[in-house]
């Protein structure tokens, strides 16, 4: 008997194994890491020799003789144990109507069994005979032990050994190397230069962490199983594929990869695809001869352009492969850690493509064979597996999908789409394969008249209307003639200083007439001007000067001291300079001005605008705003903001009057408006942020809009719908309100919307359509601008953002465009809407958060006046979202604000910090200063800043969690809102924390929860939610695994949505487990007793298979199948999965339509432990309660009497819910107890639920049918032929299945009080001694032995009672030595059944007592079906 | 009879898979670092078996230079038909 040897060798895991181990920890119950194949052997096989070949080979393969244990620090180790005696399952299935199908069914069941790495062997074998000369050798191995290549090495050796055994030849040496050599090689690699080279390659290749496109928006943890669709590519297509590959000198796999990338691009529109490529990872390695797990995954990124052909892509893939393959030894897991792409929903690569060239031709004693893959491991998203079939004439393509992300139909569509693309593309490899991303183009139309240089226009006004007022400021004014004259004079002074075309002059002046004069003078000199803020700190000014490198600073004496080391021209100094005639003004491509904007790196960048662009903008905007020479325009913006360009040049080019505001005007909104009234301003050009204040003040009557104002232009940030609404209500459509949008790079304004348009619906704030001369192009949601008003570029050396100016190939002629980085949406009215900044997009827990979206919701709170939400990047790289709000009294609390947000936004978009402030920081132009906000150290961060006075934040549970993380990560001051994985946590560390938290909190903490709730606050909430208010603290329960107790808590949110109404006749009944022994009888009884449609969730690949399983379940037990097809609806399901694997739509539909639920399904197994049963048995109950809660429908749970404590503990089993007790030792009992416990809580919440506990359910007396899967019958069937029977218990409850079905249905449909428990034990228990006597009397003499003795003496014949044997083996494996005095006590005390008896009174339903005659009928059945040999001594 | 494999042919085969000119192929190069993968090596092995040199994927994959490949191929060439070109 294999037992872990405490003194066995212990080894660290290989990196690849660690990855698998980690994955398994995330879901211990998942069988997904079982990989398997089966070899179909075309010829006779000697089962004994085969078993011996397996035994021998397993003994040779180190990787199979292992268990995995965890040390005190949570680190995994591989332990050497001897597993060679593990016997294969050998069965002859040829009597089955469909042996192959039966074999596949067996494999599916075996695959579905999770492996406990600490206890179970990592492998399993079966030899299934499916035809006279056809055997299937099934070969399952946990992925932690072997990868696909390792599996093939083992398979080859088995074939070799078997052949030698049959032929009597020497077995020879396996040739396998040692695992230690592989470990050594890995250590050497990690210490090598090559490792560093490889790391550099990958971290650089993925430095920008490309977005990973999947075929679905969603992401999920790896599922427990997968969907698969397989198709063969016919030889013609394969030949075309090879031909394309040959022509391009690439590998055919490159062509398949290219087609896959093209398919994903076509489906998603993503410009770049990152595929996951499993790589053998063995070239030049000792592991070529060591069965082991070393497989790696290579991320392959491929840019796909919509003009690419298959040829283009295949060549690109090939190049990328050649570049990456030399670095293929670098671990994928390591790269994810390097790139901080661990945890949450961070992804390094997308769908997988697995090319398997290992066609192995195995011969078993000369007989040919074919290999079939059953599972290649878990599927994260989608995986394309390509198998090179024999002779290279055909390719098998199996597309696997994660069922949490794709349904069958979606998978089918993707598989077909991919194959169609592949076939089409290899037939026409030069044709474009990439998809066309939707391109939206908005054209602002031609300019109303040709754009004229601004200086010409202004000179015209000076010449024609020289006396008209050009500029007014604080009581002073200049006419156009005067302005023109002084500007020309300045130009001459500049020319004397050798300032002319190509030069840049810094203008450092406050707003005023002089500033306007200076600007015009510089332009007249032929030079460009660069306005700098006279109020800026010296450091900022010198940084800008260094960047712009002006030839001269134009300023006044007041500021001169700051520019001592630069050439300066003082505007207010005596005009002593020699004067030169000014040269001709600049050509269209000469720069007119340079204005700095903040760059993405934080370094300011100077945007160079040419004269042509300025002229284009002025022509377009003047037309759009309808500016006239009568207008008086307020000059509001400081000169270093480009809004000043709009104000100054639009006004002067129109011949209107520019009225420069004085500083005191902006002290308050009423004051500004009073001044505007006094100054007869007709056009107000305001920063949107300032206008927000103005709109508020006007709407409340605090200020009055002057009657002369006919046009208001706003811009600079997104206008708030709420303020626009106020404005429209209070001001009306008579004043034109233009909402403008435009980056500095497109000359002030690119698009304009008329918000006064009454056609706009409330709340809608478009940014409109492009100005004449401009086009807006929307690509993948992002706005590109094209047209004559684009900037020349950035001043100075190469800038990171230079690439933003690039041709737009989607437009004819590929014109130059500017990529704004702004996300927009085109409305049905043809106007654009601003969505947000592409780079403001803040990613938290894998969610994309647009601060603007959060702000909009904040502002819907009645007591919030202003709000700004910023993503904050802390010094240690932590990211968090912070809301800054200005509230009106009484201010809401932070919790209230978050609650308000939570009502509309997903959790990730709710800022972790809410800070109240009197005012938001604003930039000089009145915009919210987001930079200041994102670098601010707010109150919420005081803990992090290390202030000793600050108490640790968060609840005590949160503190425990953060404390644990601080310990593991070696970090300090982790806040409850920090995402562990953002802090650099790795999966292994998450596992350690989960373990330690489990110990610390004395409860189960699953690793997956840490991934699902990656902050302490979220995790604490989750843990608290699970604990609920249950009266029994889990820690107090004796001996019960913590998982059981945790699972036995009903979620707080499962509550009745509606009062329980009067029961009417059910029209639709949901019945789970309808294919089982009891379930099929329940189905038959429900069909008889009601007229309802019975919905049966069944494990099946599709509806047809589900229906077929139901039909066979009924007919196979001689139960009538209803003539009316409407009566039974079989739906494919998996009760262990979320929403029972029904999918959201069906789950919701059933919740809305079912009138009653019978939950009978359970995985009945006495050998499995709880972790592998909880999904199907316990969690399914939780899901069904959720389903029942929608309409408060009754739920009846079929449970088991085995949840009760044994006789030794209680003399009587009550018809009541049971507290936890030490008798709950087997997983099955635990899972059913936990289910009952959930119902108990549901009953307390008013759910109409009942529990039906069953004893041993035996066949109906009239048929004598025996459930062959029943444990007791399994014991009898293995013991009787050997003449020995074990002492199992003293007595037990037997109830025939037909009685059970009638009783359960009857009792459930009579509207019992909520929470009624029924013990279906209406007759005395049957004594085991009596049973064995009757068996003997039937003609089977049998010795009665203690269980241990019986087990020892039972022959180990391979084809009998596999489950029974396995059950007893599992006892031995678990260390519970089967000794005479430690037999499990399976007996119960007296079972009360008053509820049952009372409920069935007068119903005519009664339970027959099990007697000799009945037992004989069962034994007759066994003889008839061949389950037992005919008795020899019995007299007939 | 298939054409026997010559060093020139060997170089040409490698060059095709490495996207190089035959004279650029560095025989001291490690096949792993040259950017080959198991599928490409499988394909090469099949090609050379067709040319009469009985080599398996595994034998090629475990060698760490093209020179070692050629040595193996030379040993496995049937008869004395091959001459180092």
Automatic annotation (TrEMBL), chain A:
Coiled coil: none annotated. It comes from Streptomyces lacrimifluminis. Keywords: Ligase, Phosphopantetheine, Phosphoprotein. GO terms for molecular function: ligase activity; phosphopantetheine binding. GO terms for biological process: antibiotic biosynthetic process; lipid biosynthetic process. This is Carrier domain-containing protein. InterPro entries: AA_adenyl_dom (IPR010071), ACP-like_sf (IPR036736), AMP-bd_C (IPR025110), AMP-bd_C_sf (IPR045851), AMP-binding_CS (IPR020845), AMP-dep_synth/lig_dom (IPR000873), CAT-like_dom_sf (IPR023213), Condensation_dom (IPR001242). Pfam families: AMP-binding (PF00501), AMP-binding_C (PF13193), Condensation (PF00668), NAD_binding_4 (PF07993), PP-binding (PF00550). It comes from the Bacteria. Its cofactor is pantetheine 4'-phosphate. Residues 952-1027 form the Carrier domain. SMART domains: PKS_PP. SUPFAM superfamilies: Acetyl-CoA synthetase-like, ACP-like, CoA-dependent acyltransferases, NAD(P)-binding Rossmann-fold domains.
UniProtKB/TrEMBL annotation, chain B:
It comes from the Bacteria. It holds the Pfam family PP-binding. Residues 11-68 form the Carrier domain. This is Carrier domain-containing protein. It comes from Streptomyces lacrimifluminis.
């Amino acid at each position: 008997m294999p037992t872990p040897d405490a003194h066995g060798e212990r080894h660290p895991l290989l990196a690849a194994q660690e990855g698998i181990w980690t994955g398994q920890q995330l879901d211990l119950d998942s069988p997904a890491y079982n990989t398997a194949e089966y070899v179909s052997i075309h010829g006779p096989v000697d089962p004994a020799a085969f078993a011996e070949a397996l035994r021998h080979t397993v003994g040779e393969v180190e990787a199979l003789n292992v268990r995995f244990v965890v040390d005190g620090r949570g680190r995994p180790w591989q332990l050497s144990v001897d597993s060679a005696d593990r016997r294969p399952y050998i069965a002859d299935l040829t009597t089955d109507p469909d042996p192959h199908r039966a074999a596949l069914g067996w494999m599916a069941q075996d695959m579905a069994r999770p492996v406990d790495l600490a206890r179970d062997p990592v492998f399993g074998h079966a030899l299934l005979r499916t035809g006279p000369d056809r055997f299937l050798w099934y070969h399952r191995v946990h992925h932690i032990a072997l990868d696909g290549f390792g599996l093939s090495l083992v398979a080859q050796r088995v074939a070799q050994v078997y052949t030698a055994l049959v032929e009597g030849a020497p077995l020879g040496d396996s040739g396998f190397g040692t695992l230690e050599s592989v470990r050594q090689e890995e250590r050497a690699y990690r210490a090598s230069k090559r490792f560093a080279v490889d790391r550099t390659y990958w971290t650089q290749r993925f430095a920008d962490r490309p977005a990973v496109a999947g075929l679905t928006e969603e992401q999920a943890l790896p599922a427990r199983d997968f969907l698969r669709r397989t198709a063969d590519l016919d030889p013609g297509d394969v030949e075309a594929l090879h031909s394309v590959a040959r022509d391009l000198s690439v590998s055919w796999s490159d062509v398949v990869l290219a087609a896959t990338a093209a398919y994903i691009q076509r489906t998603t529109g993503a410009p770049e695809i990152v595929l996951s490529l499993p790589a053998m990872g063995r070239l030049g390695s000792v592991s070529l001869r060591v069965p082991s797990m070393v497989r790696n995954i290579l991320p392959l990124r491929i840019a796909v352009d919509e003009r690419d052909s298959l040829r283009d892509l295949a060549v690109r893939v090939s190049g990328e492969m050649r570049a990456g393959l030399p670095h293929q030894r670098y671990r994928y897991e390591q790269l994810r850690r390097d790139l901080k792409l661990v945890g949450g929903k961070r992804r390094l690569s997308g769908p997988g493509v697995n090319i398997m060239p290992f066609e192995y031709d195995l011969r078993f004693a000369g007989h040919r064979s074919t290999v079939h893959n059953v599972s290649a491991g878990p599927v994260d998203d989608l995986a394309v597996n390509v198998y090179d079939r024999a002779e290279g004439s055909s390719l098998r393509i199996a597309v696997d999908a994660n069922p949490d992300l794709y349904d069958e139909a979606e998978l089918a569509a993707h598989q077909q789409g991919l194959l169609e693309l592949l076939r089409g593309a290899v037939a026409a490899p030069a044709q474009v394969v990439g998809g066309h991303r939707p391109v939206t183009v908005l054209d602002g139309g031609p300019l109303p008249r040709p754009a004229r240089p601004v200086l010409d226009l202004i000179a015209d006004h000076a010449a024609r209307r020289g006396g008209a007022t050009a500029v007014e400021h604080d009581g002073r004014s200049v006419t156009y003639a005067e302005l023109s004259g002084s500007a020309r004079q300045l130009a001459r002074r500049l020319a004397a200083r050798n300032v002319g075309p190509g030069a840049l002059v810094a203008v450092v002046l406050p707003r005023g007439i002089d500033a306007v004069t200076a600007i015009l003078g510089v332009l007249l000199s032929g030079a460009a001007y660069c306005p700098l803020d006279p109020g800026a700190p010296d450091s900022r000014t010198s940084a800008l000067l260094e960047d712009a490198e002006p030839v001269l600073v134009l300023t006044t004496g007041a500021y001169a001291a700051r520019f001592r080391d630069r050439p300066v021209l003082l505007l207010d100094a005596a005009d002593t300079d020699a004067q030169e005639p000014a040269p001709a003004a600049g050509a269209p491509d000469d720069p007119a001005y340079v204005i700095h904007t903040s760059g993405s790196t934080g370094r300011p960048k100077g945007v160079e605008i040419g004269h042509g662009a300025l002229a284009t903008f002025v022509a377009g905007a003047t037309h759009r705003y309808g500016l006239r020479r009568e207008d008086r325009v307020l000059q509001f913006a400081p000169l270093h903001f480009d809004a000043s360009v709009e104000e100054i040049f639009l006004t002067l080019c129109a011949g209107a009057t520019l009225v420069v505001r004085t500083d005191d005007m902006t002290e308050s909104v009423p004051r500004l408006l009073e001044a505007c009234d006094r100054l007869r301003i007709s056009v107000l050009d305001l920063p949107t942020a300032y206008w927000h204040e103005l709109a508020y003040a006007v709407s409340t009557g605090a200020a009055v809009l002057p009657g002369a104002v006919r046009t208001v232009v706003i811009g600079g940030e997104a206008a708030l719908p709420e303020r626009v609404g106020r404005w429209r209500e209070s001001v009306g459509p008579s004043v034109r309100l233009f909402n403008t949008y435009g980056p500095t790079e497109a000359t002030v304004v690119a698009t304009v919307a008329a918000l006064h348009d009454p056609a706009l619906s409330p709340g809608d704030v478009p940014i409109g359509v492009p100005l004449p001369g401009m086009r807006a192009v929307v690509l993948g949601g992002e706005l590109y601008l094209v047209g004559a008003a684009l900037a020349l570029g950035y001043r100075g050396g190469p800038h990171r953002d230079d690439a933003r100016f690039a041709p737009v190939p989607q437009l004819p002629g590929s014109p130059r465009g500017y990529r704004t980085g702004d996300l927009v949406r085109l409305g049905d009215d043809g106007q654009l809407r601003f969505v947000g900044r592409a780079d403001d997009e803040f990613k938290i827990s894998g969610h994309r958060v647009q601060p603007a979206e959060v702000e909009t919701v904040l502002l819907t709170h009645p007591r919030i006046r202003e709000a700004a939400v910023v993503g904050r990047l802390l010094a240690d790289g932590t990211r968090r979202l912070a809301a800054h709000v200005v509230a009106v009294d009484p201010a809401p609390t932070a919790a209230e604000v978050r609650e308000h947000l939570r009502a509309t936004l997903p959790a990730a978009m709710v800022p972790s910090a809410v800070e109240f402030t009197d005012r938001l920081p604003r930039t000089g132009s009145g915009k919210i200063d987001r930079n200041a906000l994102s670098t601010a150290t707010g109150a919420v961060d005081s803990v992090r800043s290390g202030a000793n006075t600050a108490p640790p934040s968060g609840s005590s549970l949160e503190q425990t969690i953060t404390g644990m993380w601080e310990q593991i990560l070696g970090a300090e001051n982790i806040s409850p809102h920090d995402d562990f994985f953002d802090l650099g946590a790795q999966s292994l560390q998450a596992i350690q924390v989960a373990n330690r938290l489990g110990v610390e909190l004395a409860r189960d903490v699953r690793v997956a929860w840490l991934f699902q709730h990656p902050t302490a606050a979220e995790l604490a909430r989750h843990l608290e939610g699970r604990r609920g208010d249950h009266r029994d603290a889990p820690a107090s329960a004796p001996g019960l695994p913590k998982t059981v107790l945790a699972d036995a808590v009903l979620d707080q949110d499962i509550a009745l949505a509606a009062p329980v109404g009067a029961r009417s006749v059910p029209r639709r009944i949901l019945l789970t487990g309808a294919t089982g022994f009891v379930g099929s009888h329940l189905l038959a009884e429900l069909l008889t007793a009601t007229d309802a449609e019975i919905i049966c969730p069944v494990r099946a690949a599709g509806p047809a298979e589900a229906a077929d399983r139901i039909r066979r379940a009924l007919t196979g037990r001689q139960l009538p199948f209803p003539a009316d097809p409407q009566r039974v609806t079989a739906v494919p399901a998996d009760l262990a999965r979320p929403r029972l694997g029904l999918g959201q739509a069906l789950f919701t539909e059933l919740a809305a339509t079912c009138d009653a639920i019978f939950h009978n399904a359970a995985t009945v197994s006495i050998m499995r432990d709880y972790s592998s049963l909880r999904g199907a048995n316990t969690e399914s109950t939780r899901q069904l309660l959720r389903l029942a809660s929608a309409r408060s429908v009754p739920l009846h749970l079929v449970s088991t009497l085995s949840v009760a404590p044994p006789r030794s503990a209680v003399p009587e089993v009550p018809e009541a819910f049971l507290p936890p007790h030490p008798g709950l030792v087997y997983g099955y009992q635990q899972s059913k107890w936990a289910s009952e416990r959930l119902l108990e809580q549901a009953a307390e919440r008013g759910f109409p639920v009942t529990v039906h506990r069953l004893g041993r359910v035996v066949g109906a007396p009239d048929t004598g049918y025996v459930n062959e899967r029943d444990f007791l019958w399994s014991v009898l069937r293995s013991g009787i032929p050997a003449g020995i029977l074990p002492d199992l218990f003293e007595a037990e409850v037997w109830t025939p299945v037909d009685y059970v079905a009638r009783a359960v249905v009857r009792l459930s449909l009579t509207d019992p009080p909520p929470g009624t428990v029924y013990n279906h034990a209406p007759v005395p228990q049957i004594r085991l001694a009596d049973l064995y006597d009757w068996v003997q009397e039937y003609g089977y003499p049998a010795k009665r032995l203690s269980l241990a003795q019986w087990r020892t003496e039972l022959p180990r014949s391979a084809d009998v009672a596999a489950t029974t044997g396995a059950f007893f083996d599992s006892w031995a494996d678990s260390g519970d030595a089967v000794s005479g005095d430690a037999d499990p006590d399976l007996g119960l005390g007296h079972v009360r059944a008053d509820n049952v008896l009372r409920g069935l009174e007068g119903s005519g339903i009664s339970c027959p007592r099990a007697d000799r005659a009945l037992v004989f009928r069962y034994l007759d059945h066994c003889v008839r079906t061949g389950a037992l040999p005919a008795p020899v001594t019995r007299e007939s | 009879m298939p054409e026997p494999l010559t060093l020139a042919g060997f170089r040409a085969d490698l060059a095709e898979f490495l996207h190089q000119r035959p004279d650029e192929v560095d025989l001291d190069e490690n096949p792993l670092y040259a950017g080959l993968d198991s599928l490409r090596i499988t394909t090469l092995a099949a090609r050379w078996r067709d040319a009469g040199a009985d080599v398996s994927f595994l034998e090629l994959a475990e060698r760490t230079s093209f020179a070692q490949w050629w040595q193996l191929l030379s040993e496995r060439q049937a008869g004395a038909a091959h001459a180092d070109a």
